[in-house]
Each structure stands twice: as structure tokens, then as C-alpha cells.
Design brief:
The complex is a heterodimer.
Chain A (H helix, E strand, L loop, with lengths): L1 E4 H15 L3 E5 L15 H5 L4 E3 L4 H13 L3 E5 L10 H8 L2 H4 L9 E6 L14 H5 L5 E4 L3 H13 L4 E6 L6 E4 L14 E4 L4 E5 L3 H14 L4 E5 L2 E3 L3 H11 L2 E8 L4 H13 L8 E5 L10 H4 L3 H12 L2
Chain B lengths: L36 H26 L13 H8 L7 E3 L5 H6 L4 H9 L8 H4 L10 H16 L5 E6 L6 H13 L3 E7 L2 E2 L2 E2 L11 H5 L3 E5 L3 H16 L5 E6 L18 H8 L3 H11 L5 H23 L19 H15 L7
Parallel strand pairs in B: 1-2, 2-3, 3-7, 6-7
Antiparallel strand pairs in B: 4-5
Helix pairs in contact in B: 1-2, 1-11, 1-12, 2-9, 4-12, 6-7
The chains are: A alpha/beta, B alpha/beta.
């Protein structure tokens, strides 16, 4: 076991992926000598060279577009988008090209490209640095979308993403980059399946679904709810497309209540899709409607207001209260 | 706003030409080409057959057998010239109009029809032919070509990538990013721009104030304008550009100056936006007629040869038509094929549900 921050776990996972497969490349802005603005790629260019850890021109569509070309040539590029709000210049290449190439080629082409996106708020940043754009990508067939929430998953999931023969959008919770945990980096460690959810805390009275940065918030809320005698089960979804629905359905049928927590705006967010599916499959087991807690239908606010925008312990507990009020 | 002499090279644009519209061979100090009679006849055959494939596809669309077709009429020389400059190891990234390049890459013409008939989004194996799938989003493929070329560099291979695009595409951000990437990484890629003067209804003036090939200089690599209706010049210029790229001299841009003789696609009506005189003047520069004149005048081919090629073209058209009509509609469940390379629970579930729904009808899954 090694104690690692989430950022360092990603760094070590990337290093391992590069050691395991010479076709793995890393590309992005400021990822070389600087090691990325969050230092996730720290030291990699020094050890693997500029041909494998590529500081790119400052153009996101170019990063994804050239990564696609490299993948057609047989490489496995891992692209860093510096911040969530800067992925949109690359959205065209991701949605019209990356996601659709296997289908367009009738399976002749694989595009094993990973797009890493630091996401979410809570770090007091300026505009475009705090967004949660996961629903744009879960809505795009052909992409796998995952979100890690802790150092253990960060270390394993980034390696699984690199090994996947499908394109993967990989969300990293930027305000949890500095959270620490013990990570088993030995080859003997067992890895959780890539597209499986995980019960982060078992419980009997209510199922709480969260991913990425909100898992920690959900766990804190579950702890607070326990003081009021409510046994909350927290599920870390991990994979957002596909979603591990059987695990979620089993849990909600058992608990009869469900609260979904995400930072993105509630309206048309991934929570809406989950609520619909849960309602459809757990209709006779539900004691209350599936409730959602998330961002408002506003642009992400200036940072002095973000604590009101982001779901926090109290807003999550308020939803728990409402779920028990039916 | 007035022109500023400090904007760069203001001299009249130069055009590389080796074969005049009248079929006269002319010399160029930087580009020469020495082809055998058989090679010259081969180019003529390519041009004629490619035009015939295009003509048949237009007819198939008019008869309702294709939903759409993007005709290459007038651009045969640009495509055959550049396409024949490629070696097997080079990789081409086309738009949706590169039927002539596809021909040179040995793609069966019937495979081009699949996406226009609506049975698939691209039917050939891009790896087998080193000819990527048609890209419909304007300019996206230029970045793929550059990335592929970066892969060639990393493999230490001696090949090159070529990116096809049009005059309209030069306004796209992706194309400009591709120029920057190629330049910064010195990637072995040739940017082959077919300037056919029109982006659907928008004339070249809506895309640029300078000759397109001169943009290359601003990005830090050479650019050249070639007579896009001259198959010899297109072949010679592309050969040199590819050779330079393969030998580590980096990217370059070729502007093949040509004309879209037909509509943008079969859905378009060019009479709404361009004058007939323009078309007539370009007819005099036809890419096939000049080769035919050259072959005749120099005794390289005779009427019997031309008749033989015409007959081959007609048979190719008939065969294409027959195989197009025989192309089966895909099965409904094919919707779910190849979306992912690895198992995907959601898709598997939807597929199963849809199959059950189809089977709920008496006739079962149709």
C-alpha cells in the first residue's frame, strides 16, 4: 500500500500504462515540463520523452483531431483537456468523429483515445473552470464516460481507460485531486471492473447515487444522516455510460428511496435519466419519488456564490428529509 | 478597407501547368514528369472510368436509388493525378467527393455508394486500402491526417499522409489547426486543396482575400498552385510534395485550381447562384479532353483505344448499377452493430428489447 493523492494516483497510473504499452502517448497543453496545471503528468515527459508526452499547440480540437489520426495509425493517445470549460472547441471532433468512427468503419477502426477532463467546482476559480459537462458526453453514443472519485479508482480506472478499445471520456474531480488514500499499486491488486458501480457505503433506508466530486459529499451526508438514525447507502456510479443499472436497481428495490446528487444542473442532467430508469424498474418498491440534488439552471456562478450553487451537506440532507417525508 | 502592400506577396498567382487545355506539353522549371506511353494511357483510362462512375451515380440518384451524390465532375485530374502519386504505404484522408482518389486506392466503386444509398456510413476497409472513410464534417479529416503523419514519424516509417479538402474548408478552424500542428511537428503530410471555386453557393471570395496556396507561407511551409485540370501537373506536384514529406522535409500545401462542373450535390441547384458563361469557359479546360488530344497528336493512342476505354467505362457503369440495385438493405438490428468495440450493457439491453419487439409481430424480425 502506498498513500497517494488522487492526482499522484493518476500520475502513477499513467506511468504504468506507458510502461506497459509503448503505443500509449500523452498529449495536451502544458503537460510536459510543467507537468500539467494540476501536475497529473508530472515527470512523465522527462522519463518518456517529448515524442510520447507531447506538449501541443493551444487548440483543443487539434488535440482530439490529431489523437484520432494517431489512433488510426495504431497509437493509444491520452489527451488532457486543461479544464472542463475548454472541452467545447473539441466537442466537434469528439462527437462527430471520435464517437462515430467504429460504426462508420463497420468495426474496422478502433479509436482507443482517452480524453481526461478535470471537472467540477469548489476551487474558487474564474469562469469556465468549474463545470460538469458529463451529460453532453453521456448523450453521445459511441463514447464511454467514467468519473473517478478517489485515489484507488484514479490509479486503476485510468489504466483501464487506456486499455479500452473504445474512446473514453475520463472525468477527474479537480477539488479532490489532493485527497489522499492508500492505494495498492502491486500487480497482485484486484481491480474493480471498469464499467461497474461500487457501493461506497452500505445502507438499508435510502440509496444515494453520486459520482466524481459528489461521492465524498454523499458519504459525509450519509454519516450525518446516520446520527438521525437513517441508514443511507451510497453508490459511487464510476461509469456514467454505460451505467451499472443492475446494482442501482437492486439497491433501490431494497431501500425504497433514492436521492441522486450531481454538480451539473439538474435540468436535463444525468440524474433525470437515472430517475426515469429507476422509476420504471422500481415502481412498486418506491416509498417516495426519486429526488435530485444538483446545480441550478444557471451558468456556473462567480466563485463567491459557488457554495450556494454546489450541492453541499445541508442540501443533500434536505433531499434525504424530503425523501422520508412521503 | 484597402489592400496593404505589407500583407505579403502581391504578385500575380503562379500556376504549375505541364499540359495545356489544348493538349500541348509545356515545361516547368521546378516540376517535370517523364511517363511511358502506357502510363499516359493509364491516366487517360483512370480519368474516363472515374467520370463514368460519377455519371452512373448521378443517374442512380436521379432514379431514386441513391439518396444523394456529390459529383466530382471537372475534378478528375486533380484526384487521379494526386491519387496516382501515392504509394501503397501512404495514407489518404478524403472528403466525400474523392471518388477519383478512391479509384486510385483500389476501392470498389460500389462501396462508395453504400453511404449515399443509406445502407451504411462508409463501406470500405480504410486500413486495407490506406484510404480513410469519407468525412462529411468539413475539414475534420485534415487533423486526422496530421495525427496519422505524427504516427508515421514515431514509427520511423518512410511514408506520408495526404489530406484532401476544398476551398470552403480552408475557413474551418480545424484546417487551420491542422496547418499549425503539421508545421510545428514537421509532420509528413501533404495538404491537397481542390479549389473548385465554390463552397455550395459561396464563391471563393467569401473564403479568402489571397490565393489559397499563399496561406501556407504564413504557417511556415511551402504552398504551390497547380492546374487542377492538368493530370500531369497534379501528378508531378503531388509526387514531389509526398517525396519531400517522406524524406523529413515536412508538410506542404497544394492548391489544385479547378472547377466544380456540376452541382455541389444532387440536392443543389447552381443555376440560382452562378452564371452559365463561367461553366462554359471551364468546359474548354476539360481535364480529359486535353489528355485525349495529347495522346492523339503524339500517336500514343488511336481511336480504337479510345473506343475500347469507352466500352470499358460503359461496362463499369452497367456493373455498378447492377450491384447497386442488388445491395441489400441492412437488417434492423444492424443499428446496434459496431457502436462500441467492447461489450456495452445499455446497448445490449436495447438490442434485446428491440429484437423482442420485432419478434412480437407475426412475421417476426423482418
Amino acid at each position: 500500500m502506498t498513500t497517494l493523492t488522487l492526482a499522484k494516483a493518476l500520475n502513477m497510473g499513467l506511468r504504468k500504462a506507458m510502461e506497459d504499452d509503448p503505443k500509449v502517448l500523452i498529449m495536451g497543453e502544458d503537460i510536459g515540463k510543467l507537468g500539467g496545471v494540476f501536475r497529473v503528468t508530472d515527470g512523465l515527459q522527462k522519463d518518456f520523452g517529448e515524442d510520447r508526452v507531447i506538449d501541443t499547440p493551444l487548440a483543443e480540437s487539434g488535440i482530439i483531431g490529431t489523437a484520432i489520426g494517431l489512433a488510426i495509425r495504431g497509437y493509444r493517445p491520452v489527451c488532457e483537456i486543461q479544464f472542463d470549460g475548454f472541452v467545447f472547441p473539441a466537442a466537434d471532433q469528439i462527437i462527430t468523429q471520435l464517437a462515430k468512427m467504429p460504426l462508420r468503419s463497420l468495426g474496422k477502426l478502433k479509436l482507443p483515445v482517452v480524453v481526461r477532463i478535470p471537472c467540477g467546482g469548489g476551487i474558487g476559480a474564474v469562469e469556465h473552470h468549474s463545470e460538469s459537462p458529463e451529460a453532453y458526453f453521456t448523450h453521445t453514443a459511441g463514447l464511454r464516460v467514467v468519473a473517478c472519485s478517489n485515489p484507488v479508482d484514479a490509479y486503476t480506472m485510468i489504466q483501464q481507460a487506456v486499455r479500452s478499445d473504445d474512446p473514453v471520456i475520463f472525468f477527474e474531480p479537480k477539488r479532490r485531486y489532493w485527497d489522499k488514500a492508500d492505494v495498492d499499486t502491486s500487480p497482485a491488486a484486484t481491480w474493480h471492473p471498469f464499467d461497474a458501480a461500487r457501493i461506497a457505503k452500505p445502507g438499508a433506508d435510502l440509496t444515494m447515487l453520486a459520482w466524481g466530486p459528489m461521492v465524498k459529499t454523499a458519504l459525509l451526508a450519509a454519516g450525518a444522516a446516520a446520527e438521525e438514525g437513517r441508514d443511507v447507502e451510497v453508490i459511487d456510479l464510476r461509469s456514467l455510460n454505460p451505467v451499472d443499472l443492475p446494482l442501482v436497481i437492486e439497491s433501490v428495490r431494497r431501500t425504497g428511496r433514492c436521492v441522486i446528487v450531481h454538480e451539473a444542473p439538474v435540468y436535463s442532467g444525468l440524474g433525470g435519466e437515472l430517475a426515469a430508469r429507476i422509476t420504471e424498474q422500481c415502481f412498486y418498491h418506491l416509498e417516495a419519488p426519486v429526488l435530485r440534488v444538483g446545480g441550478f439552471s444557471t451558468p456556473y456562478p462567480p466563485s463567491r456564490l459557488e457554495e450556494h450553487y454546489l450541492p453541499d451537506l445541508d442540501r443533500v440532507l434536505d433531499a434525504v428529509d424530503r425523501a422520508f417525508g412521503y | 478597407m484597402t489592400a496593404d502592400v505589407s500583407l505579403g506577396d502581391q504578385s500575380p498567382p503562379e500556376l504549375v501547368q505541364l499540359l495545356t487545355p489544348e493538349g500541348e506539353r509545356v515545361e516547368h522549371p521546378d516540376y517535370d514528369i517523364d511517363l511511358s506511353d502506357e502510363e499516359l494511357k493509364g491516366l487517360y483510362r483512370d480519368l474516363v472510368l472515374v467520370r463514368r462512375v460519377d455519371l452512373e451515380a448521378v443517374a442512380l440518384q436521379r432514379q431514386g436509388e441513391l439518396g444523394l451524390w456529390a459529383s466530382l465532375l471537372g475534378q478528375e485530374a486533380a484526384q487521379v493525378g494526386s491519387g496516382r502519386a501515392l504509394t501503397d504505404a501512404d495514407m489518404a484522408f478524403p472528403t466525400y467527393r474523392e471518388h477519383g482518389v478512391a479509384w486510385c486506392r483500389k476501392v470498389d466503386p460500389v462501396q462508395l455508394l453504400g453511404m449515399f444509398r443509406g445502407v451504411n456510413h462508409g463501406g470500405w476497409d480504410p486500413v486495407e486500402h490506406n484510404f480513410h472513410l469519407y468525412t462529411i464534417v468539413i475539414g475534420s479529416q485534415t487533423l486526422h491526417a496530421v495525427g496519422y503523419a505524427m504516427g508515421i514519424q514515431r514509427d520511423g516509417a518512410e511514408s506520408a499522409a495526404i489530406a484532401y479538402f476544398g476551398d470552403g474548408a480552408t475557413s474551418q478552424g480545424d484546417v487551420n489547426e491542422a496547418f499549425i500542428w503539421a508545421s510545428v511537428f514537421n509532420a509528413p503530410v501533404v495538404f491537397f486543396c481542390q479549389n473548385n471555386q465554390w463552397a455550395i453557393s459561396e464563391p471563393l471570395e467569401k473564403q479568402t482575400r489571397i490565393p489559397l496556396y499563399r496561406r501556407a507561407a504564413g504557417f511556415g511551409f511551402p504552398g504551390v498552385r497547380v492546374d487542377g485540370n492538368d493530370v500531369l501537373a497534379c501528378l508531378a506536384v503531388t509526387r514531389k510534395a509526398l517525396a519531400d514529406a517522406r524524406s523529413g522535409q515536412g508538410p506542404s500545401m497544394i492548391e489544385a485550381f479547378t472547377y466544380r462542373m456540376g452541382a455541389h450535390t444532387t440536392s443543389d441547384d447552381p443555376t440560382r447562384y452562378r452564371v452559365a458563361d463561367e461553366l462554359e469557359s471551364w468546359k474548354l479546360k476539360d481535364p480529359i479532353e486535353r489528355v485525349k488530344a495529347y495522346l492523339s497528336k503524339n500517336g500514343i493512342a488511336d481511336q480504337a483505344y479510345f473506343a475500347e476505354i469507352d466500352a470499358e467505362a460503359d461496362e463499369l457503369g452497367r456493373d455498378l448499377r447492377r450491384r447497386c440495385l442488388a445491395m441489400p438493405d441492412p437488417q434492423p438490428l444492424a443499428i446496434f452493430d459496431h457502436v462500441y468495440n467492447e461489450p456495452h450493457a445499455l446497448l445490449a439491453e436495447e438490442r434485446e428489447q428491440f429484437a423482442a419487439y420485432l419478434n412480437s409481430f407475426e412475421e417476426g424480425a423482418r
